[in-house]
Amino acid sequence: MSNGKTVAVTDATFESEVAGSEILVVADFWAPWCAPCRLVGPILEEIAAENAGKVKVAKINVDENPSLAQRFGIRGIPTMMFFKGGEAIGTIVGAAMKDRIQETIDGLLQ
């Protein structure tokens, strides 16, 4: 269950944290050197807190976990992929504003 905080996910923890999650997961593919990623980070922290128990926000550093980025065809960051029941069901590429991310979440929770 989500505690309202983002979760750092690695190659080793992806299956349990994302694929095995019982709630919707927003997987944020990012890197510390990426300026747009740094803009989205605080937004995702707010979304994690405001949607605690309904949504898990997973942060995947593409520099440290290149196989996950390759597995999901990540070509640009930030990329947010939405997972439900272990399946990728949506994607936002680029630095999206909070309302767009929340609208996507709300639509996927229906």
Can you tell me about this structure?
The protein is globular, with a radius of gyration of 12 Å. The model has no long low-confidence stretch (mean pLDDT about 95). Helix content is about 35%, strand content about 25%. By secondary structure, the chain is an alpha/beta fold. Strands 1-3-2-4-5 form a five-stranded mixed sheet. The longest helix has 16 residues, at about 35-50.
Compact description:
With 110 residues, this protein is α/β, with parallel strands linked by helices. The chain contains four helices and five strands; from the N terminus they run βαβαβαββα. The chain is globular.
Topology:
Layout: E1 7-8, H1 14-19, E2 24-30, H2 35-50, E3 55-61, H3 66-71, E4 79-84, E5 87-93, H4 98-109
Parallel strand pairs: 1-3, 2-3
Antiparallel strand pairs: 2-4, 4-5
